[in-house]
Design brief:
41% of the residues lie in helices and 13% in strands. It is of the alpha+beta class and 539 residues long. A seven-stranded mixed β-sheet has the order 1-2-9-8-5-11-10, sandwiched between helices. Strand 1 (41-48) and strand 2 form a beta hairpin. The radius of gyration is 28 Å and the shape is globular. The two termini are 52 Å apart.
Length: 539
């Protein structure tokens, strides 16, 4: 960058480091400034002919600008991935590995040019901790080009709040409850359609983006994942509450051990078009659609993720000795499935373990509904049980579940919604929240720029010294610093980890560190009969 006098320094548009520090204070305190914005906030009002007095305001940012900001962040220049990879456990390429999104089948199938896999998440959240009804409806956007370890950390700014949806409850008082529910659904769909509209053209005809490494690339932003809880999944997919939003399974088929064919956009549109022509009223139209796919918005009582995990830790211990062994086996299979599904890296073998745990549950679940015993439930047509049928395929399609789970956005609610609300005067708070968030992002982005700034003199000095700036993500296997299981018998390690030749290979590995010149090393011809001097190891 050049200053007004033709000079060059990294603090432009500021005269010095001191000027930047004063400006940072001014921005954070709301005083005027001239720092470039991340992506400008805009507003739009929605209203309907049936109720023109009730206007619903959405605060949003251009989705293309957000994508450009994410890909143009210099802090992530070496972490961005531009093309998919197929990773295998060994050179035979028999066992595939799935972890990041770029290792998935979806990206390998879709890739024809540089993709920006768009990940959208929506989740209504309470702004007040203990009382009150203040809520916010944030929409988040991130990209599959970045490792999920970065996307999950708010300090990395790899996930951006792209909109606040309307949470207005001022729907016409003369409307029926069913009509109000329909209006709320329509407001949601119209809002999301407007926010994501720019991506349609860019996805078909590409967009030009200046990446953090300084290169200009043509990118095709494609919606890859939509992250939401179950009620919102039904809302987004226009699926009847109590059915599966991913496949055609009806509410009476959720207990089956096999999934139905996948939901398709054309199927939903066909149902809507067919019933519009034969329906005499809105109520009649909804009743007709309910028989096929469509239904309204309902709410579930919420249990936090931490509480759910705490219950899972003690559930099995509470059942042993108090329930039949087949019931214990059922719950054990479910817990196995839950914990295997949370692996940060999968391969074809671990996906088999996942399917085996699910099969074990389905083979024994009949005892939970057996009328000859004390039945736990009358039926097991539960959406979350049915959803387990789709996990293995989802991991193959989009990588491990930590790429698209809802838990990662709980922390973003604090940074992007609740702290902004606390900084407001609590009256017409959403514009103030958006302004507060924009200020924090401006400071963070400029500090990132300063951290990665290189003057022409620095670049020339690196060239003369032969230092190369290696681009591309860091690939490899990361091992924890401390073992999670201490003093485990070798036989147990070999059995649990399915590595029967572990001791044999460990002997060969340790032998190479012994001094050959002093006769400490054992000859290779004798290694097959050598015993390890220990029987336990920490894993």
């Amino acid at each position: 960058m050049e200053d007004g006098d033709g000079g060059s320094h990294k603090f432009v548009p500021f005269a010095s480091d001191l000027d930047w520090r004063i400006a940072r204070w001014a921005v954070q305190e709301g005083i005027g400034h001239n720092i470039p914005s991340h992506a400008k906030w805009k507003t739009r009002e929605l209203w309907y002919k049936s109720d023109p007095d009730d206007k619903h305001t959405i605060h949003y940012r251009d989705s293309k600008e957000v994508i450009s900001a994410l890909l143009g962040n210099p802090a992530h220049a070496k972490d961005n991935v531009y093309h998919p990879r197929k990773i295998f456990t060994d050179s035979s390429k028999m066992t595939r590995i799935y972890n990041e999104m770029w290792t998935s089948e979806w990206w390998n199938t879709v890739q024809g040019a540089t993709l920006a896999p768009v990940i959208i998440a929506t989740d209504k959240t309470q702004l007040m901790q203990y009382s009150g009804n203040k809520t916010a409806y944030p929409v988040y956007m991130t990209l599959g080009n970045l490792p999920h370890s970065l996307r999950q950390r708010p300090s990395q700014h790899a996930c951006v709040l792209v909109a606040y949806l309307s949470v207005s409850k001022s729907i016409g008082q003369e409307l029926t409850k069913k009509h109000k529910s329909t209006c709320i659904q329509q407001i949601f769909h119209d809002s999301m359609c407007f926010i994501l509209e720019p991506l349609k053209e860019a996805g078909k005809h590409r967009m030009e983006v200046v990446f953090g490494d300084g290169y200009v690339r043509h990118v095709y932003p494609i919606l890859a994942c939509y992250i939401a809880d179950y009620p919102e999944q039904c809302l987004v997919m226009c699926a009847k509450y109590g059915t599966c939003p991913k496949c055609m399974a009806s509410e009476n088929d959720l207990g089956k051990s096999e999934a139905s064919r996948r939901q398709a956009q054309q199927t939903t549109l066909t149902v809507i078009k067919d019933n519009i022509g034969v329906s005499m009223s809105l109520s009649n139209f909804q009743d007709c659609c309910k028989q096929h796919l469509i239904s309204g918005w309902l709410e579930l009582s919420q249990v936090s993720g931490k509480e759910r995990k705490d219950m899972a830790r003690i559930l099995l211990g509470c059942l042993i000795g108090k329930a039949p062994s087949q019931v214990v086996l059922c719950y054990c299979a479910i817990l196995d499935f839950v914990y295997i599904a949370q692996y940060s890296s999968h391969d074809d073998n671990t996906l088999c373990y996942l399917d085996n745990a699910l099969k074990l549950f389905h083979d024994n679940k009949h005892i939970l509904t057996d009328p000859n015993l004390v039945p736990v439930r009358e039926h097991l047509n539960i959406p979350k049980f049915h959803a387990m049928l789709h996990y293995a395929q989802a991991i193959q399609d989009f990588g491990t579940t930590d790429n698209y789970n809802t838990e990662m956005f709980e922390r973003f609610h604090i940074n992007c919604a609740k702290e902004g609300w606390r900084a407001s005067n609590f009256c017409d708070e959403v514009p103030q929240m958006a302004q507060w968030l924009a200020r924090q992002e401006k400071v963070a982005m400029f500090e990132s720029y300063l951290k990665h700034y290189k003057s022409l003199d620095d670049i020339q000095a690196e060239k003369e010294a032969g230092i190369e700036d290696v681009q591309g993500p860091k690939m490899g296997i990361f091992i924890s610093k401390r073992p999670s299981a201490l003093n485990q018998p070798l036989a147990s390690v070999q059995s649990k980890h399915h590595c029967p030749s572990f001791s044999h290979h460990l002997i060969y590995y340790l032998n190479q560190f012994l001094n050959h010149s002093q006769g400490q090393a054992i000859p290779k011809s004798q290694l097959h009969s050598t015993q390890l001097p220990f029987h336990n190891i920490s894993v």
